[in-house]
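Hi P.,

Sorry for the delay on this. The queue was packed all week, but I finally got your sequence through. Input first:
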Amino acid sequence: SQCASCHGAAAAGGPVFGPMVGGIGSFKTDKRLLTPGSMYPYAPVLFDYVRRAMPMNAPQSLSNDQTYAVTAYLLNLNGLVPDDAVMTAASLPAVRMPNRDGFIVDDRPDTRATR
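Then the structure:
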């Protein structure tokens, strides 16, 4: 109920945001579709984003359990985990994301940063 108002039914796209499903492999084309399944290299990145930023009208209001459930739901919709998957701090990092190897290290000397 908190997600559909922006993301649409089954995260297929809504009045505020586009689809959260599909697009896997689209980064190798000229028609990229930005979805969790197409862009995130690691599943915990999705958890972290949802936990910190969603829902848009009340960020950080979801519990960890709710955030794991939303993350599992989105991963399932993208065909990355089965219907009965249970996401936890231990199981989430084991999810192999399709774009895991799609990022390269930027090793240019002018990109190094120190704290």
